[in-house]
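Hello,

Our lab assistant flagged a job as stuck in the queue for most of the afternoon. It eventually completed. Since we weren't sure the result was trustworthy after the delay, we are filing this so someone can double-check. Below is the sequence as submitted and the structure that was eventually returned. Let us know if re-running is recommended.
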Amino acid sequence: MKFIKKMKDGRRFLSLYVETILWVGLSMAAAVALFFSLNPAQEGLYDAYESGFVVSRTDAAVATVQNYITEHQLTSEEAEQLQPVLKKNDLSSFQIYMDGMMILNYTYGRNIDSVLYSEEDYADWETRYTIQFADGDATAYTDGVSVSQFMNTFLVIRILLCFLLFFILICVGARIVLRRIRRLHEDIHMLETGNLDYAIQVDGKDELTELQKGLDQMRLSLKLQMDQEKYLLDSNRKLITEMSHDLRTPLTSILMYAEILKMHKYKNPQQADQYIGKVEQKAAQIKRMTDNMFEYALVGMDTEADLEEPGKLGEMFYDILSDFAGYMAERGFSVQNHLSWPDVQIRVNTNYLSRVMDNITSNIEKYADKSRPVDVEAVRTTVEGKNYAGITIENTILKNASHEESSGIGTRSMENMMHAMKGLLFIKTGEDNYRICILFPEVKEKE
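-- returned structure --
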C-alpha cells in the first residue's frame, strides 16, 4: 500500500511535467497536420503557376535563346553552345530537331548524346517552338521552365507556417502556466499586506494546485492562530482590568485596618484582634484570587492536555468524589449521591480533573447553604450529535453570600481545563440554586 501511495504521489508530482510534454506533443502534431493540410493549397497554386506564369516565363526564356543564337550567329552544328543559356534561363528540358534529326537533347542541366528520341515522342505533350539558326530553321520542344524553385519556395513557406503555429501553441501553453504563477504571486502579495481574509484561488490538478491549496491552508491556519491570539489578548486584558478592580477592594481594606492598628485607633484588645482577623480574611481573599489567576494563566498556555488511557466513567470519578464527599462532610455539608454509572469509557487528565473539582469544592464552601444537601449525579447525554458522559453537582445558594470574586476567574480556569481535555462545562445559576455539569466524550471500546 505504501508503494502504491508513493506511485500516486509520484504521478501527481510529475503531472505538470507530463502536461508540458503532452502540450509539446500536441503542438508538434498540429504543426505536422498543418504541413500536410497545405498540400491542396500547394497543388492549386502550382496549377495556377503552371497555367499562367510558367507559360509566359517559358516564352521569354525561348526568346532569350533565340536572341543568343542570332547574336552569335550559331549554326545547327554549334547547338551545344546553348547549354549555358538554357541552364541560366532555368529550362529543365529542351530538345532541338533539324530535318528530323536531333541536334540537342538538353535535360535537367546536361546534354544527353547517347539517347536519340524520335521527334514524335515530344510532339505529343511538349510545347513546340521554331528556332532559327544561321544555317536554317529548327524545331524545339520543351516542357517549360523548372518549377523546382517554386516548389522549394512554397516548401519553405509551409515549414515556416508550421513552425510559427508550433511556436504560437507553445507560447499559449506557457502563457497559461505563467498567468497562474503571476496570479499566485499576486495572491501571496495580498497575504504579505496582512489581508488574511483574501482567499487563494485554487484551480487545476498539478503541483501549482497543491501549492495553492497549501498556501490557502497556511492562510487559514495563520488567521485562526491570530484570531486565537487576539481572543486571548482581549481576554487577558479584560482579566487584568477586572482583577485590578477586585484586588483593589481587599487591599484598600487591609491598608485601612493596618492604619487603624498602626495608629492604635481601637477601643480595646478585642477590637484590635477583630481588625487583625479582618486583615487575615482579606489577605486570604487576595491569595485565593492570585492563585486562581496564576492557574488560569498556566492552563491557558496548554491548548490540549495529555489524556490518560480510557477508563470506565465510575472508576475515573470514584476517588475524586470520595475525597469530595469526605471534605464536604468535614466542613459541615451533606452530600447526596445519585450515581448510577452508565457503562461507558472516557479519557481524562487526572491532574486537571482534580483541579476542576478543587474549584467546585471551593465555590461550594464559600457560596453553598450548609442546611441543604449537595446533590451529585452521574449523567449521559448527546451534544451536537456526539455522546458525552460525566457528572452534575447542584447546591443551594446561601442567602446574602458575599461574591468576592466577581471576575469569575475560577470559572474561566475550569473552562480552560475542560477545553484542554476536550470536555464540556455547563453552569446554570437559578434564583436559589447553582448547578454545574462536566462532560467528557465517550470512547469506544476498541479505541
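-- support follow-up --
The delay was a queue issue, not a problem with the job. The result is valid. Residues 1-13 have pLDDT under 50 and may be disordered. Residues 61 and 85 are 9 Å apart (CA to CA).
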